[in-house]
Amino acid sequence: MSELYVRLNYLFNKYYNGTASEGERDELFEIIDSSATDAELASLIHQAWDSLDDDGPLFDKSKSDEMLAQILRTNTEPTVVTPAKNNLPWRRLGVAASLLFLVGFGAYIYSNQKKQVVTKKSIAKIHPKNDALPGGNKAILTLANGKTITLDSAQNGLLAQQGATKINKTRNGQLVYEAGINADAPVINTISTPRGGQYQLILPDGSKVCLNSESSLTFPTKFTGKTREVTITGEAYFEVSKNPNMPFRVKSDNTTVEVLGTHFNVMAYNDEAEMKTTLLEGSVKISNGTATGILKPGQQAVLNKAGKLKVLNDVDVDDEIAWKDGIFQFRDAGIDAIMRQAARWYDVDVAYEGKIPQREFTGRISRNVKASELMNMLGYAGVKYKIEDKRITIQQ
C-alpha cells in the first residue's frame, strides 16, 4: 500500500466524517485533482458505497450540502456532464465528480440548474442488463512481409527483427522499435487498432506515438533520407524527437503536418466532418494543396472536407488529448460527437430514434467505465437511451 493511498484514505475519511481541517480539505482536493490517484480514489468510494443502505442517498443531506458547498467555493471550469449552457462555477465540481460520481456512482446531478439526489437503488434501476466494456491495449502489427502479430496477446520481449531493427513489446504493453546501425534498407510496418483498442509505440528515431481506437500508423523500420514520414488514419498523439536536419512529417489523405520536434495531436477520422491538429509544444506546419497554416502552442488547425483551413487560438488542449490519459472530456459537444467517440471505444453501433437531439454537453468521465456508466451520466442530463446487443439507441 503506497504512502499516497494511506494519506488519501486518511483525508477522505476525515472529510467524509466532517472532521477535516481547512488545510486537510485543501490537501484532499489537490490530491483528487491529480489523475494519478484515480484507482485509489475509486477504491475509497467503493468502500463508502458498500456501506450505504439501498434506499439511502449516497451522502445524507447535511453532509452532501456541506461537501457540495465546499467544493463549489472555488469552482471555475466545467467537468461534469450537464447541459453546456448552465452558468455554474465548475472546476471544483470536477472534484465532486471524482468524490461522488467518477466511477459511476450517484451524486448531485445538474440539469437545467436543478439539484437532485440519486440513491443507490435508483442507479441500480436504470443500469441496463446489456452493456459494453471499455476498450484497452489492443492492436495488430503488420510486418513488411505481410505477417501479422496480435499485440494484446503476444508475449513480452522480442517480437520480430527486420534487418537490423528489433521490435520489442515491453511489460507495460508498449511497442518499441530499436533501429540498428547497418545499411539495410528500411521496410514498411503498420500498426492498427480496432474499435475498443488503443496502443503506444516508440518509433526508430525515439519519437513516441499514442494511437487511439480505430486508427492506424504506417512507418518505416528506420528513418533515412531528408525527412521522417509516417501516415495515419484516425487519431494519434505524437511526441517527436528533435532532429533539425530531418523534419518529421505526418500524412493523412492529402494533408501533411510537418514538425522538427514537438508534441501535438492529430484527429483525422473519416466519419468526422473536420480534421483537427492541436499543438501543445513546439511548432507545426499544416499543408493541404494551396491551404497552409503554421501553429503555435495552444492553437488548433481545423480542415474541413472542402479543404478550407482555419486556425483557432487559445484551444483547451486538455480537451483534445484527454483520451490518451484515459478520459472522455467534452466541451459544448453535441450528442452525435459524443456518441462517435463512444462507438469507437466501446465497439458498439449507435442509432437514433427520430432526429438527433440538438443539445450540447460539457463533461468528464474515465474511459475505464462501462458504456452504461457513460450513458447514465448523459441520462441524468436528460438523454434517453437503451443498450442492447452491442448497440446504443438514443431515444426521443
Question: In words, what does this structure look like?
Answer:
With 396 residues, this protein is of the alpha+beta class. The chain folds into three domains: 3-50, no CATH class; 136-320, Jelly Rolls (Sandwich); 326-395, Phage tail protein beta-alpha-beta fold (3-Layer(bab) Sandwich). Helices cover 24% and strands 35% of the residues. The chain has helices spanning 3-16, 22-32, 38-50, 61-72, 91-100, 120-126, 317-321, 335-346, 371-380; strands spanning 82-83, 108-111, 114-117, 136-137, 140-142, 148-150, 157-162, 165-169, 174-178, 188-192, 197-202, 208-211, 216-220, 228-239, 248-252, 255-259, 263-268, 274-281, 284-288, 291-295, 300-304, 309-312, 327-334, 349-352, 360-366, 384-387, 391-395. The chain has a 19-stranded mixed sheet that branches. A hairpin with a 3-residue loop joins β26 (384-387) and β27. The chain is globular and about 65 Å long. The relative contact order is 0.11. The model is unreliable at 52-65 and 67-121 (pLDDT under 50).
